[in-house]
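Dear support,

I submitted the protein below through the web form. The confirmation email said the job was done, but the results page showed an empty box. After a refresh the structure appeared. I'm attaching both so you can tell me whether what I see now is the final result or a partial one.
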Amino acid sequence: MAETNRPKYISFDIYGTLINWDTDAVTRRLLDGRLPEEQWPAFKKVFRGYRFDAVLDYAPYEQILQSSFDRVCNFFGIGPTPGAGAELADAVRGFGAHDDVPAPLKLMGENFKLVALSNADDSFLEISIPKLGADFHAVLTAEQAKAYKPRYQAFEYMLNTLNAKPEDFLHISSHTRYDMHPMHDMGFRNLWLLDRGYDPIGPGYDLNVVKSLDEINKHLGL
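What the results page shows now:
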């Protein structure tokens, strides 16, 4: 890879992209038979939408999980669930890395400065980052920025903290709405969607779509 095209930083979304996000078990337990099974696929989809809506205002991440869970339950005619946010937060802290992450990420980290930009609190990343098996130059969170992606403030925090410009980054995420769309609008162009099936992939955002970090390492000449 030509040195002129070498990114100064490789930045990442963490949950879903590198850490395996799977809240199905805890969500089903919290519902405790209150939802007909045939409504489960719709509940999952709407819950994801409410989580996205909730992060447009800042609150600690456990509160985001509590409020979005209560709102989706209300949408389906189910009463609030005290303690849901804490149980969901515990589940998130317990998630491990996707199986296809540690080896290629370690190689990447031996050759580039890795940056985490995560929609969670510091305490979550203190547990999750060591599970990835690679050294990170910086671990940046919504708690630090006082804003969640897709808010521009979250990305501005990364730029300001690192005294960097959008062209200094190669960014990797599995989420179009949280990362790719706002970053493209802000002038980031070296955007790599690690497609794990979360979002539809529309045209017009100049995304490089891959199925593995190995493909990105190959692009980087590793």
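Response: this is the final, complete result; the empty box was a page-load delay. The chain has ten helices and six strands.
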